[in-house]
Amino acid sequence: MFFEGSEKKVEILVHQNQLSLLNDLSDDFWSELVNRCNAQILSSISNDKCKAFLLSESSLFVWDDYFLILTCGETNLVNSVKYFIEELGVNTIKHLTYQRKNEYFSHAQPSCFGDDVKQLAKYIPGRAMRFGAMDSHHTFVFHQDNQFKACIDDKTYEFFAYQISQDASNHLTKPGLTAHDIRTFLKLDELIPDFQLDDFVFEPYGYSVNAIYDNKYLTVHVTPQSDSSYVSFESNINLIELIPIILQILEPASFDLLSYNETEFKTLTNKNVPNRYVSQSLIQQTLTNGFLVNFANYILPTQGFSSATELDISGDNHEL
Asked: Is position 319 within any domain?
């Protein structure tokens, strides 16, 4: 069984004198916004600062002045952006950022990044950049080109693990695994004490969790199948400081790090990334919207030969 875990992501900031996302929009609005990209809301949690929706494909977080939605699988996230604009008007948007990771099987997606940008550019003038080599792990970023300038204290972190260890994959695909079992395996109580959690175990495999505390958030999505394993973390808490724990749990063959406005990225990675991992890409760029973006891809060098993988040519296969 194959599932495309790599996320598409959009963050939209609104003019607070025009709209309060928490107070002026109902859950029905957010449900329809999610439906437009071919996903559904499964559950939600909230506090005074944030509402977090767990989706059939990833997550949606809403604060008073901005929202963040991530979707995976074969979703078309641009459709959700179009719905937001059609309902509330493009002038309510203070700034928009759209991001898309490289996929395992991009040909199976309903659109590519280029298609998405063409749709967004009909409403939002912007610029697009690629972080990482095209023939390796990379992330595309499209951002609105206007007078907006990001506050340097607005920091976010993303961690993407590929080819987790066979032990981790075996554990996360055990029959009858509960949400509590996975929380314990991922050491969430240690990583994010005091956070309110909302999680879901998918059938036959897969796990998602949203966590919020005050205005802080963390979301984790697990695609554990050994032939296409992928685990993503995103948060506005410093994930680079948590890397030693995450790597000990998952032992991936490779992982990517992406940060916005982390000025100490090199110092933090030098301190927290084990020496056994080697960097393939190290990219730093300040965007015209003021965001300092750092991207790094690390691999665990192969020490010996492995066997080739035989494919089933008689049935449906994303590799054929």
From this structure: no
